Amino acid sequence: MENVIDVNDFSFFYGDKPVLEHVSFHIAKGEIIGLLGENGSGKTTFLDSLYGFHGKQEAILILSTNPVIDNQMIKENVSYIQDTPNLLDYLTAEQYIKFICHIEKLDYDNKKEEIMRYVDLFDLSGEYQSKLIKDYSFGMKKKIQIIGELFLHKNIILIDEPTNGLDIGMIISLKKLLKQEHNTFSSTIIISSHNTQFLEDVCDRILLFNHHQIVKDIINDSSLNLETEFLNAKSMESEQAYGQG
């Protein structure tokens, strides 16, 4: 199967501090991959690097090109739903979605029926046309952020902490929406999350991050208990630290 992402011995430092060291793996077209690890383990830095926020990365190939912020191939084919919504607060949600259509060269009227299905799904119809985004709660902003990327149906979707700010009903809806996106458009989806159940319910594979590295590549099957896998990795880390002490 064709790989859309190849990572070969990738390392990243903030000054002298290592964030990721010697990371290597491959993602095939149409896979849904989860990233699991504690805060500071490098998951967000890796997603940022994939999108090109940290400059050109020679050790990463995404769609056969090195990521960098002005790479047109990445702009046209990759969506990034970041942990904290970065929206245009002085617009209404409808104006914001129209703006997205404008910069993506899409006709809003042609997409409106589909967009409104998302708006209804996320229970935003009452505020969609009238309320400024600056007056939205964090969770409502998160919903608009998700809608503003998913209706574009890009080939690769990067998502950082998708469940932050969402209640249980919205989390269930988002899981269904991501599976629908994958099944309909063969999207490759990479999700960083602390929500182990969300990753188990959605992903084909989970990459376990620890101490700046990927310590395990886990196939998701009926026997998987992701919490146990994570705790086992932590236990092995503690044993190794004790042995060195």
TrEMBL record:
Q: Which residues form the ABC transporter domain?
A: 5-236
- The residues that cross the membrane are none
Question: What is the superkingdom listed in this entry's lineage?
Answer: Bacteria
Q: Which SMART domains match?
A: AAA (SM00382)
Sorted alphabetically, the keyword list is: ATP-binding, Ligase, Nucleotide-binding, Transport
Name of a matching Pfam family: ABC_tran
InterPro entries to which the protein is assigned, alphabetical? AAA+_ATPase, ABC_transporter-like_ATP-bd, ABC_transporter-like_CS, ABC_Transporter_VariousFunc, P-loop_NTPase
Q: Which GO terms describe its molecular function?
A: ATP binding; ligase activity
Report the Gene3D superfamilies cross-referenced here.
Answer: P-loop containing nucleotide triphosphate hydrolases
Signal sequence residues:
none
* Protein's recorded name: ABC transporter ATP-binding protein
